[in-house]
Batch of 3 targets.
Target 1
Amino acid sequence: MPIQEADLVAVRDLLEGGLVEADVQRLSTPRLAVGAAVSASSLTTAQGLASAPIVLAGSAQLAAVQMLDAGVAPLVVIVSALVINARILLYGAGLAPWFRDQPVRRRLLLAIPVIDQTYLTCVPRFERGDLDSSGRVAYYSGGAVWLVGAWLGTQALAITIGARLPESLGLEIAAPLAMAGLLAKSTTSRQGVVAAVVAGALAVLAVGLPMHTSLLVATIVGIAAGRASQRSSEVSR
């Protein structure tokens, strides 16, 4: 069966998404933070690794591991993880318009890897307007496959070496710093820069908030700052 041009384009978009995500995933310190927490806890390696695909989010997984190790009730752990990951609702809402023409089953599959990295790398690429519906799915899928594979694969190594890393490395701020870097790379407009600066700074400064909610608070405040900047620009015109 001859290879169609559409197939080659899909492969190209898939590889592009994977390569972009691979570049982002060079920063592995959030995985080291989770690995260090698992290694230092009473959880087994299997239990720690099992939490990775279930949560698929560094801050929530780190909080869940720490609370389970402290003997917190499972229901409280689940609710806390949901609160920490509430920002993913915002990401999902932002990605939804780009896949509105896809079948419900496919959209449900695409929703699984929605996280900071997928949103902040895919949306700016989609906004360039040169990818059609199938191209967006291919690009997103390439990035998602790399993201999930890297997250699960490197956590095994992180759990092995994590407990040996000194606390002076400050791994607890790894996830906020990674988010700040992603925001800086993904913004071009004035309001985007304002949102990125506010969210990035707050994510790092608020790292000590209860229930690891610094990323959630930073995301909400950053969006609000961006919207306020946009309204200010419109008024001044």
Target 2
Amino acid sequence: MFKAGGSVPEPTGQKETSKTSLEEIVNRILASRSDINRKKIMEIVEEKKRNAGDFLTDETAARIVASELGVKVVKKSFRLKIKIQDLVSGLNDVTITGQVRAVYPPRTFTRRDWTEGKLANIVVSDESGSLRVVLWDHKVELVEKLKLQQDQRIRISHGYVREGRNGKPELHLGDRGSIKVVKEPEK
């Protein structure tokens, strides 16, 4: 239970992560600015925190200091790996990586407005399941251009998920979508 004047315990591991990030930022400043030392940087960081009523973390204050000193600090990108089993109808801008299990020949069809359309299907799988991928119109050309074949590892980007005729999700690739052959497996 929290008592007035007491402190709230930090979650395990958070403090070390914060220190590491602070250390990385300080090292980046030191590498870029030879006119300032570690002690001075830490003084400025503490001053930023005090001026903000101690509402800033060490890392945030250090990022502000770095910015004011003209040092660029890039935040590590967080990339969530989405698995096929996680896909549900309605998702947009989806990127998945998987192995080609089947490639079906392209087909043409006539739309309701009497224009001709093209589509091709491929089946892709990962460790969680398999999925039909539908390529529309000019994206059909990717099958031949990339020479897609069974057992290739590919990354499909900017797709959208719809419910297929069998009730299972399928990934559609329209104008914004792309496919890239991936050379080595992701870790």
Target 3
Amino acid sequence: MKKLEILVTGVGGQGIILASDIMGEAALAAGYDVKKTDTIGMAQRGGSVVSHVRIAQRVWSPLIKEGEVDLLLAFEKLEAARWTNYLRPGAVAIVNQHALPPLSVNLGNEPYPSDEEISVILGHRSGRTYFVSGTQFARELGDVRTLNMFMLGCASLFMPFKVQTWKETISQRVAAGIRALNITAFDAGRKEIRNVHLGKGSAGHGAGVMDKEDV
């Protein structure tokens, strides 16, 4: 792998910063250089949050240039659409099937786009867009805070790190009492991408997948 440019986006309260921190720490543990920067919206909860994560043998700057993102990991659908212009042609977009309408939508000033509209927007740049049931799974698991680990599990199929490296990094960053729950969410994200999406026709195991372990 020469380099991997990742944009992680969503809204406050979804655990985006922790997810991108773990992503960076897993890359360091795997022997790569990493640069990362976060932008947090005005509100602690509900404001837009985005993390730039750059991984390579040597990285000089934390900011990804527009049009160079390889992997978009979006915790909220509208935030995915907002950052489409950062994707390189053929990029992978993983989008949590969940809507958190901004104030302008709640006030009736503008509509929230449909899934079809979001897919069309992403399709201008993304070669493969995967809508995943992260929030639904986290609720069923009993703790919506595990959404970020589910999304990391989804992303892990497109990153060249061993599963053991991911799980060791997660274990170092979450409390012992919720460690097993978070690992379960991570495994579920991997399973959804592998079994639900990558098993479908042309989106097979050669579609940009860099998974290091077949588990």
